[in-house]
Amino acid sequence: MAELKASLACAVLLSYTAFLLSSAVLAFVEDLDDTFKDNRMDDVWLVDFYAPWCGYCKKLEPIWHDVGAELKNSGSPVRVGKMDATAYSGVASEFGVRGYPTIKLLKGELAYTYKGPRTKDDIIEFANRVAGPAVRSLPSRQMFDHVLKRHDVLFVYVGGESPLKEKYIDVASELIVYTYFFSASEDVLPESVNLPELPSVVVFKDGSFFTYDEYEDGSLSSWVNRERFQGYLQIDGFTLYELGETGKLVAIAVIDEKEPTEENIRLKGLIQRVATEYREHFNRDFQFGHMDGNDYINGLIMGEVTVPSIIILNTSNEQYFLPSEPVETLEQLVHFINSVLDGSAQAYGGDGIFQRIKRVAYDARSTVMSVFRSSPVLGCFLFGLPLGVISLMCYGICTAESDDGAEELEMMKREGLTDEEEEEEEEEEERRRQAGKPEAPEDEEGEVERDEKSAVEKKTD
């Protein structure tokens, strides 16, 4: 008995501890209502706008609590909250919420939408980056080297106060959702970095550096947007979506990394060489990389891409280009890219009306197939039940029409028999007139007929 009481006491203690821990975690994420918009200006807020019925929102919920806990424990000034966008639709629409879940960082009058992977580390990194100053200072060579090691792509303004710095700050405020922006004096940079003039905006990536030229590169915002990726990178579905915002065409080597055959390695190497050796020719218009497997590409083009192969995607209009012959050399690959650039290459796909209809049909078929593959019983229930109901409705309609037709036919027959009886009566009256017999009134018609029958019976006797 004593052991039983001890076990019960331990169970109660553990339950109470778990309750306290869960309550502490929940305290890191604040539930927001319609008073939030009037009280938010004094703090930086990271808010998840969700819908209670949204499956993606439910999947994000435990991650969101982890984000709130880590930001709170790290001493971050960012407050984490969540809002039911269906209950407070007016507030959500003011912040430009169009889908669920939507993650926004609100800083003063500015609202930044998070578009990255929904993982704890990525969301926290986004919050810390956007919550801080748009442009961070690098005061020493040691600090510059430390930051350069941490970032694959590093934007730095070099020089003093100038109109270019003002533009740089504006661009940083706009594009800080994607990357960091720094400023430094010339003596902070490595001695190997020789700038043609000051002030300058420099991007450090791919083991080198490149300087912004207003006359050749256009607006600073467009240049930063194009240069915020490495020249060559591994591409997945999310990265491809982000690359679409740069306006570049994407040249991809579709390979199988699980089976690094000679052909896989060769095509991947060709794409890497073009990205490095032909940067000056293609960097403005093309992004280069490789993708593991063809599943995502097949769904994108609604077709089948062989592995390994090379494909160029135009994410702005859903067109794609394939080499007309196997790519064996670097020169053949460069020729293919140039043909896409000058418009002589055959374009497939697109966003025309036919392709849109095809996309709807393809997505519908893919959805049905995925449901049946994952759960055949659920697929039969979801699609078999509606089909059965529709079939019963059609059967009922057809049966009702048949009964109505039979009733109409019966009515027609009855009407036909009535017409025949009327015709017989008219003929009988005509014969009586011709025989000189007076017409019997309607109420005596039955008696006359009985007298005639009696006379006939007497003659028979």
UniProtKB/TrEMBL annotation:
Its EC number is 5.3.4.1. Its main location: endoplasmic reticulum. Residues 408-461 are annotated as: Disordered. It is found in: Endoplasmic reticulum membrane. One of its GO terms (cellular component) is cell surface. It is a single-pass membrane protein. InterPro entries: PDI_TMX3, Thioredoxin-like_sf, Thioredoxin_CS, Thioredoxin_domain. Residues 450-461 have a biased composition (Basic and acidic residues). Residues 418-429 have a biased composition (Acidic residues). Probable disulfide isomerase, which participates in the folding of proteins containing disulfide bonds. May act as a dithiol oxidase. Acts as a regulator of endoplasmic reticulum-mitochondria contact sites via its ability to regulate redox signals. Belongs to the protein disulfide isomerase family. This is Protein disulfide-isomerase TMX3.
